[in-house]
C-alpha cells in the first residue's frame, strides 16, 4: 500500500489527539466537533487498534457534521433550508434513515422534539443583542412555520413547502453521534468505553481501574461543580438538559435558550435542569429535553412511559426523581 504525504499528516494529527493514561490503563481521545469538546476513554486494545478506532470515530463524526450541521453552508440540511418553498431536495439512504428517526422522536416526545422548530429558535436567539423582545405577532408568524407534520416527504426526497421553514438536528444530533461512536467502539473490539460529547454520554462495560464508570451531574446553581454522582455499570446513556448556561436577560428577567414550541416562548416552568439515564444517549438526551419542556408532572409521566429511562428534575426550590433513579446515585 502506498501512503501519501497527506495520509501521513492526517495520521500524525489523529495520533496527536490520542494519549494513553498508564496509571488508569485507559486511552483518551480528544477532539472538537459538533460545537463542543468530544472525549472518549477506552481500554482493552493495542496502540494500533486504538489508533484505528480513533481514526474511524473522528472521520465518522466529521462526515456526520459536514452533512447535517445547519451551521455549514455546504451541508445537506443547509441545502434543504435554502430550498424551502422552492424545490424538493434529494435524500440518500442515510438521510432517509435520519428523517424516519425524526418521525419516531417527534412521536415519542409528543411533539416536543421537532426539527422544524428552528424559526422560533432563531427568533429567540440568546446571542442576539436586543432592544426589545419578539412581539406576539412575530411569535405567531414563526409558529406558522413550525410543525413536523408540515414537512413533505416522498421516496428519496424532502420538501419544506413554505419559504422561511427550516430544519435543525441539534435537538438530537450530538446524542445520535455519541451512540454511533459507541457502536464503532464495539465493532473495533472495545468493550470498555466512555464517550462524552459535551456532557452527552454513552458508556460500555467498566473501566479497568474501577467497578463502574462514575459520572458527575452538574449543579445548575453552581455551574462547573457537581451536585451528585452516578455509577454506570452496564451499557447506557446519560444526558442533562437545562437552560442555566445559555440565555439572556431583558429588563431584569432571564430567558433561556430552550423553547416550548407549543407556546412559542422560552421555557419558564421553575425547572433548572433534567438529567436522564436511558439505554442510549439518544433516548437520554431527547427525553431530558422533552421532560424539561413539559415540566415536572408531565415530564415525570413521559419518563415513566419509556422503559429503561430514569431521571431527576432539579427545580428552583426542590428536586424530584423517578422511582429507580436512586439506583444510579453514588453513595458517599
Verbal overview:
By secondary structure, this protein is α+β, with helices and mostly antiparallel strands. Among the domains are: 76-159, Orthogonal Bundle (T-fold), CATH 1.10.3980; 212-332, Roll (T-fold), CATH 3.10.520. Helix content is 33%, strand content 28%. It is built from 9 helices and 18 strands. It has helices at residues 5-16, 47-68, 76-82, 93-108, 118-123, 136-143, 173-187, 281-294, 296-304; strands at residues 18-21, 26-33, 36-43, 89-90, 152-154, 157-159, 192-197, 200-204, 213-219, 222-232, 236-242, 247-250, 253-256, 259-260, 265-266, 271-278, 310-315, 319-321. The protein has a 9-stranded antiparallel β-sheet with strand order 1-2-3-7-8-11-16-17-18. Helix 2 (47-68) runs antiparallel to helix 7 (173-187), helix 7 runs antiparallel to helix 8 (281-294) and helix 8 (281-294) packs antiparallel against helix 9. It catalyses: L-threonyl-[protein] + FAD = FMN-L-threonyl-[protein] + AMP + H(+). It comes from Pelagicoccus mobilis. Mg(2+) binds at residues 171, 289. It is an enzyme of class 2 (transferase). This is FAD:protein FMN transferase.
Amino acid at each position: 500500500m502506498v501512503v501519501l504525504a497527506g495520509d501521513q499528516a492526517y495520521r500524525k494529527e489523529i495520533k496527536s489527539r490520542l494519549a494513553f493514561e498508564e496509571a488508569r490503563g485507559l486511552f483518551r481521545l480528544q477532539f472538537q466537533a459538533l460545537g463542543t469538546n468530544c472525549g472518549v476513554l477506552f481500554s482493552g486494545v493495542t496502540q494500533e487498534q486504538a489508533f484505528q478506532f480513533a481514526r474511524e470515530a473522528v472521520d465518522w463524526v466529521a462526515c456526520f457534521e459536514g452533512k447535517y450541521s445547519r451551521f455549514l453552508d455546504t451541508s445537506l440540511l443547509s441545502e434543504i433550508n435554502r430550498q424551502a418553498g422552492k424545490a424538493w431536495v434529494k435524500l440518500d439512504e442515510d438521510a432517509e434513515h435520519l428523517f424516519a428517526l425524526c418521525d419516531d422522536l417527534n412521536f415519542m416526545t409528543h411533539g416536543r422534539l421537532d426539527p422544524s422548530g428552528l424559526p422560533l429558535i432563531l427568533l429567540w436567539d440568546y446571542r442576539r443583542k436586543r432592544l426589545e423582545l419578539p412581539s406576539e405577532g412575530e411569535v405567531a408568524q414563526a409558529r406558522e412555520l413550525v410543525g413536523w407534520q408540515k414537512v413533505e416527504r416522498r421516496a428519496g426526497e424532502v420538501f419544506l413547502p413554505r419559504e422561511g421553514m427550516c430544519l435543525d438536528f441539534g435537538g438530537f444530533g450530538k446524542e445520535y453521534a455519541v451512540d454511533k461512536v459507541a457502536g464503532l467502539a464495539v465493532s473495533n473490539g472495545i468493550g470498555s468505553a466512555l464517550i462524552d460529547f459535551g456532557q452527552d454520554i454513552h458508556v460500555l462495560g467498566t473501566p479497568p481501574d474501577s467497578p463502574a464508570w462514575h459520572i458527575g451531574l452538574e449543579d445548575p446553581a453552581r455551574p462547573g461543580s457537581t451536585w451528585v454522582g452516578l455509577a454506570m455499570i452496564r451499557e447506557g446513556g446519560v444526558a442533562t438538559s437545562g437552560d442555566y448556561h445559555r440565555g439572556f436577560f431583558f429588563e431584569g428577567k432571564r430567558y433561556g435558550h430552550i423553547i416550548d414550541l407549543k407556546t412559542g416562548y422560552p421555557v419558564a416552568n421553575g425547572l433548572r435542569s433534567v438529567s436522564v439515564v436511558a439505554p442510549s444517549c439518544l433516548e437520554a438526551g431527547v427525553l431530558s429535553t422533552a421532560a424539561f419542556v413539559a415540566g415536572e408532572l408531565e415530564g415525570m409521566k413521559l419518563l415513566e412511559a419509556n422503559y429503561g429511562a430514569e431521571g431527576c428534575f432539579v427545580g428552583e426550590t426542590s428536586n424530584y426523581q423517578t422511582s429507580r433513579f436512586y439506583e444510579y446515585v453514588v453513595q458517599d
